[in-house]
Amino acid sequence: MNIIELEQRYLVQAYSRPPIVFVDGEGVWLEDAQGNRYLDLVAGIAVNALGYGDPELAETICQAGKKPLHYSNLYHNEPMARLAKKLVDLTPFADRVHFQNSGTESTEAAIKFARKFARTHFGEGKSDIVAFTGAFHGRTMGALAATPREKYQKPYEPLMPGVRFAKFNDVDSARQVIDEQVCAIIVEPIQGEGGIHPASVDFLVALRELSHQHQALLIFDEVQCGVGRTGSFWAHEQIGVLPDILCTAKPLANGLPIGAVLVTERVADVIHPGDHGTTFAGGPFVTSVANVVVNRISQPAFLQHVQETGAYFKKRLEALQNSHIQEVRGKGLMLGVQLDIPAGPVVAAGYKHGLLLLNAGSHVLRIVPPLIIDKGEVDIAIERLDAVLTQWT
Ligand SMILES: Cc1ncc(COP(=O)(O)O)c(C=O)c1O
């Protein structure tokens, strides 16, 4: 059996994959078993920010791999402590960090912390979470309950109770559902899976006010839009509204599993030993790598590169004379191309042109390449995308 047959025979068929087996990568390029090269605008779903084969990361991995990979959260470890300090130093609102292993675990932790905070300060009956249409916060039961997509939720009902939904970017709708029983509002500053929809400044300002008014915590889910993706270290920096809890994950260790919540002292104060935990999170191997990623991405020159390359990419997409492109949205290197045709076949056609594309919803192409992509590579991407879309004109 070849690789694809083995996977089809032995894996739970929870994913549908194209008939490509990647074996290597360099920079922003991936290579398959036949030696075909693909320009990667997906980055493992907004994860591989520093691309492939980065020498500093490779060296860090070699060194960290010679030491114990895991001690557990029973004991202290140096790379975790240093990473926590680094993240707090980069995040004006945050005082402390709690590590997880993925994005969904970080939103799960945020929900748990918010409930504990409300119970500690206000007693029973203040446990509801407000989330928004189009949101994606993950697939574990708490995060799933805040992810209003029937296909994801329906098979797993009953869901975690106590989640209310308002319309994204609609202040009146938010106002209608937020009351004293709400312990937290969770929102993505830029919705990723939902189709690359930036939250408006007015909307986030209003959520901050509503959360103060009703003594609820404001949670920013920056799992997809954070860590340099939009050209600032956190997406919310460009808006100037500060949350009480921030969720991060995807690119933090450039492909090794990690998640984290950053919280204020007030939130951290209600969490005590035994309240929440996990075996693996914050281990020395993954946090050694994350230290390098955070160091590199937080450099002003690196963020400037993301801003400039992102603006260039957006401009070139907007200039594409293809009648199926209706709008280009997003910031930095988190861009969404709204099509008037289904995005799935466009993604599939990309493979034949050596271009890895991703959809976000049915009619949106999501462009989230490694953040190291340069303008020359953007030109190649545009040329190939143009060739792909020409099939529909
Ligand atoms: C905004 C957001 N939150 C949470 C998640 C869940 O992260 P993970 O897939 O690592 O569990 C994702 C994943 O796409 C996401 O985009």
Write the layout of secondary structure elements.
Elements: H1 3-10, E1 22-26, E2 29-32, E3 37-40, H2 43-46, H3 55-65, H4 78-89, E4 96-100, H5 103-122, E5 128-132, H6 141-145, H7 150-153, E6 163-166, H8 171-177, E7 182-187, E8 190-191, E9 197-198, H9 201-213, E10 217-221, E11 245-248, E12 259-263, H10 265-268, H11 284-297, H12 300-319, E13 325-331, E14 334-339, H13 343-352, E15 355-356, E16 358-359, E17 364-367, H14 375-390
Parallel strand pairs: 3-15, 5-6, 5-7, 7-10, 10-11
Antiparallel strand pairs: 1-2, 2-3, 4-12, 8-9, 11-12, 13-14, 14-17, 16-17
Helix pairs in contact: 3-11, 4-11, 12-14
The chain binds pyridoxal-5'-phosphate (PLP).
Pyridoxal-5'-phosphate binds at residues 102-104, 107, 136-138, 188, 192-193, 221, 223-224, 249.
Structure in a nutshell:
This protein has 393 residues and is an alpha/beta fold.
Q: CATH-wise, what's the superfamily of the largest domain?
A: Type I PLP-dependent aspartate aminotransferase-like (Major domain)
**Name of the level-1 CATH class of the largest domain:** Alpha Beta
Q: Helix count?
A: 14
Shape: globular
Query: What percentage of the residues does DSSP assign to strands (E)?
Result: 15-25%
Bound molecules: pyridoxal-5'-phosphate
User: Which architecture of the largest domain does the CATH hierarchy give at level 2?
Assistant: 3-Layer(aba) Sandwich
The order of strands across the largest sheet is 4-12-11-10-7-5-6
Unreliable segments (pLDDT under 50, ≥5 consecutive)? Answer: none
Q: What number of domains?
A: 2
* CATH fold field value of the largest domain: Aspartate Aminotransferase, domain 2
The span between the termini is 40 Å
User: What Rg do the Cα atoms give?
Assistant: 21 Å
Give the biggest beta sheet.
Answer: 7 strands, mixed
Average pLDDT level: 97
The total of beta strands comes to: 17
Q: By helix and strand content, what is the structural category?
A: alpha/beta
